[in-house]
Request: fold
Amino acid sequence: MLTITSTQIDAWLAGFMFPLARILAMIASSPIFGNKQVTTRVKIGFSVILTIIIAPTIGAMPTVAIGSGQGLLIMIQQIIIGIAMGFTMRLIFSAVEMAGELSGLQMGLGFASFYDPINANHSAIIAQWLGMIAALAFLSMNGHLYMLSGLAESFQTLPIGNMMSNQGFYSVASWGGSIFAYALQISLPILAALLITNIALGILTRAAPQLNLFAVGFPITLAIGFFVLALSMPYFSPLLDRLIQEGLGTMMINLIQSNQR
Reply:
């Protein structure tokens, strides 16, 4: 007669629920997979499939019950680790959208906002356009596959039962701070060109006061903004590739530092 003890049931639940918590948190907070257009049912189903694939390769699990205090603490730890991993990659797209916001504001398109199906809200048209290009480039570079590979490797780098160190959290915060610098670098060519354009228009208006600045300046800033944006597009893909590689590296370095504490 086959008998199953409560200890075995707790071990089976722990072997499935602990990895599922990290995977689901990472999927929900990551770009592409965590978009609001992806339904909750799809996210949960995809996370369950990944858990079934990854769980047999993890190894020994903490022998604790899911409903115990220690089990709930481990569950919270896995959720925090997953959110930190997904948040690290999502910051890249935040930098691209911020660059679009700055560029559109200087071009005079700050008022032109449309519904963004990726984030399920209204955003500036330039930010939405750059965000779509970044998403397509991320998929074409197999960034989603590298992200899933890093997720599977994280269970070996930072096993279940361990928590991210203070250095790991500090690295995530530092990466978030550097994102603003990257956003400024992406939008800097357009900002510099439009700054020179506005200075020239100011001098022209000073020399010819009868010139209608709003009737002449707005089309000029729009034309120059789109022209510089088109010229900078060939350099956008290498910069995005570097951001993705640095984001993946930051995500794994945080786990390595946490495991070596």
